[in-house]
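Lab meeting, action items carried over

1. Structure of the two-component assembly. Owner: GW. Status: complete.
Input record:
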Amino acid sequence: MSDPPKGPRVILEDDQPQIAPRLDFGWDQAVVPVVPPNPPSRWSGFGRAAAGVVVLGLGLGALEAANFTAAQFTRGAVQGWLTLGVVVAGFGLIASAGWAELRGLLSIRAVDRARAAFARGDLEAARSEALRWAGGMAEAAPLQPALRQVGSIAELRALLEAGPLAGLETQANALGRAAAVQAFAVTAISPSPGLDALVFAWRGVRLVRQVAALHGLRPGLAGTVALLRRTVFDAAAVAATDIAVDAAARALLSNKLLEQFAGEAAAGALAARRMLRLARVAAEACRITPPR
Amino acid sequence: MASLTDPLGLLRDAAMGAEQLGRGLLGQERIRLAVTGLTRAGKTVFLTSLLANLLAAGQGRRTLPALEAAAGGRLRGVRLVPAGIESLPRFDVAAHLAALAADPPAWPGRTEDLSTLELTLEVERRSWLGGLLGSRSITLELLDYPGEWLLDLPMLSQDFAEWSAATLQRLRRGPRAEAARDFLAFVDALPAGTPDDEALARRGFILYRDALRHCRDRLGLRFLQPGRVLNPGPRGEAPILWFFPLPHPEGSGLAMLLARRHAAYVADQRDNFFEPYFRRFQRQAVLVDVLGALHAGQEAFEDTAEALAAIAAALRYGGSWLDRLTGAGVDRAAFVATKADHVPGRQRDALAALLGALVAAPQNRAEGAGAATAVHAIAAIRCTEDDVVTLEGRPVAAVRGVLLRDGRSARIYPGEVPLRPPEPGFWDHGFFEMPEFQPPRLDAQGVSGVPHLGLDSLLAWLIGDLL
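Predicted assembly:
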């Protein structure tokens, strides 16, 4: 076998165009984050049963109402028009409630879109989401001209965080403090732990909805559930810490009287702290910028 | 190295060690990564790629899979530390990326001044219980500087007489003697006790500077001192630089004037460059353009090895009992052959092996001080793809890229890369300058990082254990 050629060489490619395009390794595509594929969404048995009940209830109700309205018209025009008015008003209210739920859910999806745009560094998409959000917020509306001028994602984010989002965070904290005081008071005077939990849950849901409203979201029932699902993991981590602290306190205090006193005070303080934390977590979930 | 003769330095080391320990306990570690490399080794491009790819990885892009694996998928974000009140310029990664992505593209020019940047890596804690304390923030400090200045490190331990003797001995050797012929004729004509005439001093300096420039630009040599004569930095040429080696460095007159300038220069470099930035670091990446040295000929290749050994001998790797007491010392040092995309894939192992032979002395010194060492071959920005050409009737592995100078596509056969320092017959083919390639198509915003070869493995080895 002969030796390899000695010395380096440059071989120009004559068959190639004079100005060759730059190499493209498809890097942008190669490094795209790998997201686990979404499991195919299938309706659970419970979901199908519930949908069936709704379809039957609304469908049969609508058919029944239509038949009844037609029968009323045979009795007389006045009865017919009155019945039609009642039916349209009733179904109209149901439809407007459904629309409000849908809008609430869509507004939460818009927050997701804005966050995704910030995360991937897509300035134009993030700007357009920020402008849409600012348009619906009294606190952020004056910022719109400045938002149109920004030249980078970092600037856009800084502008939002320094201005309206900082103000909203302060207000969310105030709401959290108010809820904390109420939770502490209720825990102190309530006669049973079961009632504690009920009051805490009700106040927590109300707090999440209040914070969401601050951020321009109007979550209905479905929207509130979606927000609660986001906050539940953080809240669970807080609860785990609380349990550890509580257990440590009880282990250290062997005196029965001290144990009783510390237990009651600790329970109230824990409830209050959870409310404060819940307000912060809910505010994080509603912000249009991703967490740092 | 910490010593009892430098109590202030010792106190500073102890304070920094205590700070490091406290930061570690709080999960707020600060790591100084010293990126050392001779001129044209690719420090600026390396830092640009490292920053772009780390920032992209922080956004979830899979730009550094080996580092992600080393971190166990717990890297949650990477962000630039906002500017504070630093007096040094910030390393402008956005401008470098924009220039590389522009049409026509431009590689970063010669680095003329120091610049720094800090990154914060947000990493989830390993344990569930630790997770309740929140994520860890690891701050990575990076510094860019002119590579020529690094060669001033060995000067710190030499007085003017020692430096003159060593420098003139090198200058009279091989092709340097021809490049420095005028300068050598000038200084050899100066008798002992020459008066301190400013005209003579300026003339000698200009001849010496021209000789150094010729050695750097035409011969590809690197061990050239003082560094600021070749790259004066933003302050330009000042009288402190106007000295040169003398055959009769003792005595009064011109010798005394040059000795004073030499001493002032060394003190200035120590106080303003080495002490603040190289006194203490935990991780080190030594970048070497092995292929460039190989193609520049035997003299340049041996000169590179000599320069690296001299720098390593002057660097502070720690290892003494005082260093251990104050927590000083380098944990890991990686020796890195840059521009590995200039050889086809199957020769990259040979490139790393050749670098291993080239840096045997610095590697031994680092290991002697207790640091772990490794050798890597990387391309901070990959500019070529593997190809095959037929030469002298046989197919050989080559690389294909787009030339920077005229935008034409070309295939390069880089020759055979030897596994160890080559035999004399290897150098027969003469000087070859690897053409510059255009960078590949890049996103100017750097959202997806930049294509590279082996950067992730290098970072995983250098800082993976800290994540």
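2. GW to write a short summary for the group page. Key points so far: The two ends of chain B are 28 Å apart (CA to CA). Chain B touches chain A through 53 residues (CB under 8 Å).
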